[in-house]
Amino acid sequence: MHMQFVQNVPFFSIMLCMICGIVSAMLPSRVAKWVTVALGGIVAALNLWLTFFLAGYGQSYVYLMGHFPAPWGNEIRAGILESVLAVCFSVILMLSMLGGMSKFEEQVHHGKQNLVCVMLDLVLAAMMAMLYTNDLFTGYVFIEIMTLAACALIMSRQNGRTLVSAIRYMIMSLLGSGLTLLGITMTYNVTGHLLMENIQETFAKLHATGQYQLPITVIVGLFFVGLGIKSALYPFHTWLPDAYGYSTPTASAVLSSIISKAYIFLLIKIFYRVIGIQIVMENQVLTLAFAFGIVGMMMGSIDAIFSHDLRRMVAFSSVAQIGYIYAGLGLGVHVGYAAAIFHMVMHAFAKSALFMSASALADASGNSKRFSDLRGAGFRHPAAGVCFTIASMSLVGVPVLGGFVAKMYLSDAAITAGGARMWIMLAALAVSTLLNVLYLMKTVVTLYRPAREGFSAPAVKRSWRTEIALWGFVAANVLVGLLADPLMQAIRSGLVMFD
Amino acid sequence: MKASDLKNRFHRWLYEEDGSELDRELEGALSNPSERMQREIDPETFARHEAQADEKRHELLMEEEKNYRRLHDWGMTKGSRLVKNAYRAAAVAVLIAVTVFLIRTVIELPPFGDPNNLYNNEVSARYIEQGIPETGAINFVAGMILDYRAFDTFGESTVLFVAACSVLILLKLGEHEKGEKPTPAMLEAEYDDRHHEPKNDEILQLAAKILVPIVLFYGIYVVLNGHLSPGGGFSGGAIMGAALILYLNAYGFEKASKIFTFKTFRWVTFVSLMTYAGLKSYSFFTGANHIESHIPKGTPGAILSSGFILPLNICVGLIVMCTMYAFYTLFRKGGMK
């Protein structure tokens, strides 16, 4: 089969990110920052090109990494779902770096800024590799890279809170990595393969003959718990609020929108392409995912309501939104998976926008953590105010924006699933939406109320980079809603290509 | 709690008002005192009201204090012990359950060494049977990790690079030029180092004088023969790193920085990783696009054979060596000088 040049894009994206990461360690900080921004843009453009090609091509293809075909050599695989997600995540990285750049310069030790850029570049590399990998072990190697880079990002701004939360994150995340590795080891032991297609074939045969039932159940459980811990699923989220709340805004945005999403995507990929979605759907582990997801939806929102700090509130809201995604997975129907992926994309855009605008708003209010000082911040920093409002509206589920569509697809999936899960999911969606309104819309209202008496807003130097990034986030969030239909089409056909 | 109280609290939360009712009244009174002054109050009634209010306040205060003390004491002694013990018991129970469950699973896994196991399949067969003609490396493991699955190994080398960079972010104290004043953190690190580490230990120096060259050359041998005998970049690099650490321990930072500085670390890591990336990008690109690759495999068994495996082993070895040495120096003193 003849290869077209555009089919090299997955390889180019991964290699380009890794090379930029390696080179950034040698570059002066002021160049390295722009390399990261440019990298996000270039990778997004390349993958957009690939997306248009794949839309016409109509199927996925494998790409040999070397001269030996899989299962002997390494290979990667590209489908339309992977390329669309690659575009989304690289755009988020670009905007997060651009928007957080002035804070980044202020909060990160000057001599170490280029090293933090190394971490950002390698996070994108790991994201690309996890999207495109067709091999379980390649996936694990990049989990390791992402884990270490995430720790470094949390402690990029060094104060007591971030150091403690980096340690906490490292312990929890390494536990997650360990469980995932255990799952991979058991999978290899039972099937003798690391290539996703071959494992799935063997699992299907074993399932038909009824062999190794217990190990297979345990493998599903290990992958779920391992990657669940790493993506901050509800009972495993204790590392999250401090890590997201006190690091640099860029780090918070990247952690919540790229890193935790990468693990969720990898879990979905493992469910579909490694274990086989039929086996997963018969497994009781999904009930656990559903239960954790539902509890997370509630508890995350309740914690967010009771937090007194804007950034921490946004961080807790992540727990709730991750709950939505896992509840979608736990429904055990194909549409549930598509809805979960759509929710993942929507949340990635909205959450990075919230972190970025929250930091700009706090800046315009004298870096205060109190909500009462945030009154009128929407007038003091219009771009951040609009960005925060749009992203909040999207998360709450105001029609036209992405969150509305995501919630609609999730309820649709719940109705398809039927039974008790339908009622629980619908009730949870309704209650959780109300809770979302309570804390997000309250904050939006606060932003546009007249300032507290006697409060004098400090003069803030506006940065054009932040301004551009904030408007970029506004556009991205609106676009996710407007382009919901083609996006969902791509996700659906991508999931079909998974089989 | 009364319903009106709850309502008030909700109202305050919704409108972002801090503090209690009393605080706000006080604030209001302070902001426009004239209004208060104008109000005519009968002094007798006022005094009676005040006295009543004082008494009530005092009662409330006493009760609050009593409740607080009771709760506080309970929380500090009985309560905390109860929670701690329950927590410990739950943790132990969960761990035992997981352990039993996992052991139960392992028992069900295929028996070790059974020829009918599924992992004795075409994958390992080809590595063993075709490994030498296809990669040119006598050491199958080198052929597997640096040719068949070279992409994974590039990832693994990058893991080391990321780890080194993370430790740099956390612990590096910054270089100071000659004539510049060192920061307090640097002085402290220097003091700690002088205080706790041996200086000019003659026995150590004599041992190092003999051992360092041997260990270093052995490491180089293991790296260069990675494609011929067991070993390779990862193990050889670790040996070379150990030699450097021994040298540093015996002779101190001043002498060690004559052969290995932060600059050396940066450049060696950079050049090694870029070489790896460059060489493998060439073979990934040609492999995927079905272009003939013109890399001679050489005669299996010769030192210059097996295509890219030898240079890749050297790159990996250098990266491992640099990372080990960097970890040691950063954890000890936060720098390489």
Question: Mind explaining what this structure looks like?
Answer:
The complex is a heterodimer of chains A (499) and B (337). With 499 residues, chain A is mostly helical. Chain A has a domain at 284-499. Chain A is 77% helix and 2% strand. Chain A has 20 helices and two strands. The two termini of chain A are 21 Å apart. The relative contact order of chain A is 0.10. The mean pLDDT of chain A is 91. By secondary structure, chain B is mainly alpha-helical. Chain B has a domain at 138-174 and 181-289 and 296-333. In chain B, 76% of the residues lie in helices and 0% in strands. Chain B has twelve helices and no strands. In chain B, helix 11 packs antiparallel against helix 12 (309-333). The longest helix of chain B has 66 residues, at 43-108. Chain B is elongated. At the A-B interface, helix 1, strand 1, helix 5, helix 6 and helix 7 of A face helix 4, helix 5, helix 7 and helix 11 of B.
Assembly context of the chains: heterodimer
N-to-C SSE series of chain A? Answer: HHEEHHHHHHHHHHHHHHHHHH
User: What structural class results from the helix and strand content of chain B?
Assistant: mainly alpha
Spans where pLDDT lies below 50 across 5 or more residues of chain B: none
Strand order of the largest sheet of chain A: 1-2
Low confidence ranges of chain A: none
The average pLDDT score of chain A comes to 91
Note the total helix count of chain B: 12
Helix content of chain B: over 70%
The total beta strand count of chain B reads: 0
Please report which band the strand proportion of chain B falls in: under 5%, 5-15%, 15-25%, 25-35%, 35-45% or over 45%.
under 5%
Rg over CA atoms of chain A: 22 Å
State the secondary-structure class of chain A.
mainly alpha
Question: Helix tally of chain A?
Answer: 20
Average pLDDT level of chain B: 85
Number of strands of chain A: 2
**What is the helical fraction of chain A, as a range of percent?**
over 70%
Instruction: Please report the distance between the alpha carbons of the first and last residues of chain A.
Output: 21 Å
Biggest β-sheet description of chain A: 2 strands, antiparallel
Major interchain interface with per-chain residue totals: A-B, 65 and 61 residues
Report strand % of chain A: under 5%
